[in-house]
Amino acid sequence: MLSIKSIKKDIIAVCRLMYEKGYISATDGNVSVRFQKHEMLITATGTHKGLLKEEDIIVTDLEGNRISGQKKPSSEIMMHLKVYEKCKGISAVIHAHPPICTAISLTNSSIPTTFTPEVYISFGRKIPVARYATPSTSEVPEAISEFLPDFKALLLARHGTLTMGKNLWDAFYRLEKMENAAHVFLLAKHLGGAEPIAEEKLKLLDQLFH
Ligand SMILES: [Zn+2]
User: Fold this and answer.
1) What DSSP assignment string belongs to 113-165?
2) Which of 12, 48, 99, 172 counts the most CB atoms within 10 A of its CB?
């Protein structure tokens, strides 16, 4: 079992990577990690994720009540709580605004996953788009609810991404792969488009990897 101290270290490292990779700017984004059975650590609202400090991470219970920390938890806390409520195997949640995924989310279309085997193996048949929801309101957990616990990566329409994982690094790798898949797809589109992998080859990947 990881200590609160080591989870905070990991959250700071992941937030810095997200900032350096351009997945968030200024105070955007939020990250949480489930701790033991009934608590979570979550980034505080209004904090710069590239410069995050230990005191910028709050401990709450799984109803969102603050247990320790001076600051206010992220304004998207309800989205994180909804994931932990519906997904028993998930222990970390990352919300970010990576530019290519976010641009695709403006068109309300999903990121295709059937163009390269790696993306298909990682994400299956689709990375769905949750309908537009006003940030920080109960519309957000309502919009993501229908995709839980089946999907570990979602686009949030006109907003950004939500990735989940069995631990924080698992959720971060999923975010990295998702933005990379979106980028490659966009480049292929500019080059004149691409065909998906043939159905029988997808079935073979299913047999081997899913
Ligand atoms: Zn956001």
Assistant:
1) -SSSHHHHHHHTT-B-EEPP--TTSTHHHHHHHTTTTT-SEEEETTTEEEEEE
2) 172
CB 126 within 8 A of CB 74: no
Pick from 162, 136, 131: which is nearest to 149 by CA? 162
pLDDT at 174: 98
Q: How far apart are CA 155 and CA 129, in angstroms?
A: 5
Find the 192 Cα to ligand 1 centroid distance in Å. 32
Domain count, the chain: 1
Q: pTM, whole model, 2 decimals?
A: 0.96
Using the mean position of ligand 1's atoms as its centre, give its distance from the Cα of residue 7 in Å.
22
Q: What's 155's domain CATH number?
A: 3.40.225.10
Domain that holds residue 114: 4-209
3-state secondary structure of 30: strand
